[in-house]
């Protein structure tokens, strides 16, 4: 990613002002109180110790500056609530499976330091007492672009075919998903005219003032 972006901005007048650094979030190579804005997008939830990571991000925020983290939100869904093949609630079952799978792979890893509060409290515990949140709705309907369809299909395919996720869904749901992703099956999901993708993307902002 660093190399990609260095090349992408190499000849751009504004891009030439951008500096790229590689370092652990828990040990940033910057002095305290350096930046007016620190932005982190869907990175903190991968940390075994999220409080340590966010506290380090907060350390480099200048007085009056802000730390913005894009995390949480409202789970994505794009299929109707009820379908003949799957019954009612497949979207919700997929969302629950994702939470369980993620918790078992990150939050309960051997080096995990459990944190049992939400994102707003995480910012407060990092030393930023003034916290706000804003959720942005991302949605699209048919006809889907090729990129949108590839994105949606990928989300279903990993649950239908990844053996490491098999324990998180029922056999019936896994079988149904295999039919939904098969373009030769009459249940192929993109044969339906009623698909609507919607997701809530939340940004949490913390500041000292």
As residue ranges, the low-confidence spans are: none
Structural class: alpha+beta
Level of helix content? 25-40%
Level-2 CATH architecture:
3-Layer(aba) Sandwich
Radius of gyration, whole Å: 21 Å
The fraction of residues in strands falls at 15-25%
What is the makeup of the main sheet?
5 strands, mixed
Report the order of strands and helices: HEHEEEEHHEHHE
N- and C-termini, Cα separation: 33 Å
Number of domains: 1
Please report the total strand number as a whole number: 7
CATH class: Alpha Beta
Mean pLDDT over the full residue set? 94
What spatial form do the alpha-carbon principal axes imply?
A: globular
CATH topology: Rossmann fold
> Helix count?
6
Question: Can you walk through the features of this model?
Answer:
With 209 residues, the protein is α+β, with helices and mostly antiparallel strands. The chain has one domain: Rossmann fold, CATH 3.40.50. The chain contains 6 helices and 7 strands. Strands 1, 2, 3, 6 and 7 form a 5-stranded mixed β-sheet that branches. Strands 4-5 form a two-stranded antiparallel sheet. Helix 5 runs antiparallel to helix 6. The radius of gyration is 21 Å and the shape is globular. The protein starts with a helix and ends with a strand. The model has no long low-confidence stretch (mean pLDDT 94).
């Amino acid at each position: 990613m660093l190399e990609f972006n260095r090349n992408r901005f190499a000849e751009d007048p504004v891009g030439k002002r951008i500096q790229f650094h590689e370092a652990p979030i828990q040990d940033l190579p910057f002095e305290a109180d350096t930046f007016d804005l620190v932005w982190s997008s869907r990175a903190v939830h991968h940390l075994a110790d999220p409080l340590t990571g966010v506290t380090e991000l907060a350390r480099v925020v200048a007085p009056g500056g802000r730390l913005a983290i894009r995390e949480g939100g409202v789970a994505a869904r794009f299929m109707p609530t009820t379908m003949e093949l799957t019954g009612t609630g497949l979207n919700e079952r997929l969302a629950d499976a994702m939470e369980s799978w993620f918790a078992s792979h990150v939050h309960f890893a051997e080096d995990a330091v459990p944190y049992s509060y939400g994102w707003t409290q995480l910012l407060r515990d990092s030393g930023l007492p003034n916290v706000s949140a804003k959720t942005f709705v991302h949605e699209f309907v048919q006809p889907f672009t090729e990129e949108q369809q590839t994105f949606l299909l990928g989300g279903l395919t990993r649950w239908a075919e990844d053996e490491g996720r098999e324990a998180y869904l029922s056999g019936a749901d896994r079988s149904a998903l295999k039919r939904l992703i098969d373009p030769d099956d009459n249940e192929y999901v993109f044969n339906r005219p009623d698909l609507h993708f919607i997701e809530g993307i939340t940004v949490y902002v913390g500041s000292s003032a």
